[in-house]
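Human: Note token order:
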Amino acid sequence: MDMYALDADALRGKRVLDCPGGPSGLVAGAIERDINMVAVDPQYSETAETLARRGADDIKLTINKARKDPSLRMEDSEYAVFEQEKQNALAAFMQAYRVHPERFVVGSLPELPFENGAFDLVLSGHLLFVYAPRSLGGIMKSELFDLDFHIAAVRELIRVGKEVRIFPTYAFTGEVRRQPWVEPVSEIFRREGHEVSFIPSRWQQQGHVDFNDSLRIVRGV
């Protein structure tokens, strides 16, 4: 909720989509709070056992990478908390995935298996702008997710949702700056008649302070 600057109470009665959902605890938390949220991700074609193994491996890989990153300078106790939070999120996801399979839909951008305007709010975290090439502040060595993909993906999110929030908008690598594709993407959808703005996040990742916000797009007529 802090990442997207949202209030859980305000989401009750709304239809919410998490795209891509991945093995996160967001839908599980929504179920606990009586929020009508579903997630979509290509990984949901896998069995629960496969996702549990993959999630555990990903946590180990993430922690090992973090410990080798000199820019983080975290204490051992902080790494332990970081890892435990990830373990808790994975456990919550696995429980929800097994008990509420209808909340987890197989699909991927830029073509989602939902009707026009199916959701009041669409949340998209840590895919768009993050999986840009490293030369443009992303984490990819290639341009698999190029600017055209980003435009098509955002257009699809707007198609299925009345409001879209995308996090983060800062560059993950290189100098501190807005990721270079954020502004051209924003301008395209402004010209198409949608309302585009930035909402400051209440959550920080690895000390990111500048440009720490979500891109908010409200669908026009």
Q: What stands out?
A: The helical segments are 8-11, 26-32, 48-67, 76-99, 147-160, 182-191. The mean pLDDT is 93.
